Amino acid sequence: MEKTPENASQAAAAPLKLFGSWASSYTHRVQLALRLKGLEFAYAEEDLGNKSGELLRLNPVYKKVPVLVHGGRALPESVIILQYLDDAWPETRPLLPADAFDRALARFWCHFADDKLGPAVGAVFASTGEDQEAAVRQVHENLALIEAELRDGAFRGRRFFGGDDVGLLDVVLGCGSYWLAVFEEVTGVRLVDADAFPLFHSWLHDFEALDEVRETIPAIDRLLEYARGVRHMLLGLAGAGDAAASSTTATPTEAPAAAAPPAPAADIAVDI
Ligand SMILES: N[C@@H](CCC(=O)N[C@@H](CS)C(=O)NCC(=O)O)C(=O)O
Q1: R_g of the chain computed on alpha carbons
Q2: Which of 34, 134, 138, 209 sits between 20 and 30 A of 188, alpha carbons compared?
Q3: Model-level pTM?
Q4: Cα of 15 to ligand 1 centre, how many Å?
Q5: Domain range summary for the chain, segments of one domain joined by +
Q6: CB distance 248 to ligand 1 below 6 Å
Q7: So what CATH class is 5-88?
Q8: pLDDT (tens digit, 9 = 90+) per residue, 98-118?
Q9: Which of 26, 175, 230 best tests ligand 1's pocket when mutated (most atoms within 8 Å of CB)?
């Protein structure tokens, strides 16, 4: 079909449905982007300990949430979904900047968030003792890189990574960073020291104060209960005192511990 403004807007008007999980920061990214763009969507909660046939059919490759279905077509992978939303609805609250280099830079730091920072934070959560100390050092090294970008680099002088308003990197980094406080509480390990990372700290404060973010992030008590359950399970599986995932691939993604049977050890991962 020829791509005209008319049929493009018809396509954009097709219904949106999100398959997600309530404690999944990847799901929160998509919920937040949909809210920022003011888009109506239906939501299907997945039990990650017992995934629906529909989820497996929609995301046969990774079998994970989130999956966004738009007009009957399914799209997995949170960052790809966010970019799709921005491509399909470029006018309302653009998430990516107009400049090609700035767009690429935002994508680079999103990759960093998923490739380096997230796994390091997950490793702190899933370990104890020396393994945990090493993981904390990794988190601090990664936060120092972000702090340096905010202080002297690409994002210098900005309230948000996206500028005056939140953009792609804010959504990606922000939906994940609220876990830092939860993990601090559960592990007793200090991760974000406001003195060491003042700009990151103040960015996170501003991000968490946004109405759309407050609407998206579950209540802290619920997250704490969930995180305590997952940590208990991880450490239990690893054997007393010798924490699980020295594996940093571990992803907290299973359904709430209280609501779902523990997943097999091999499936346990700490993605934030
Ligand atoms: N790279 C994926 C990660 C998604 C992901 O890890 N989802 C978790 C929930 S937070 C999941 O579905 N886990 C179930 C599983 O691993 O089987 C994205 O960005 O969407």
Answers
A1: 19
A2: 209
A3: 0.87
A4: 23
A5: 5-88
A6: no
A7: alpha beta
A8: 999 999 999 999 999 999 999
A9: 26
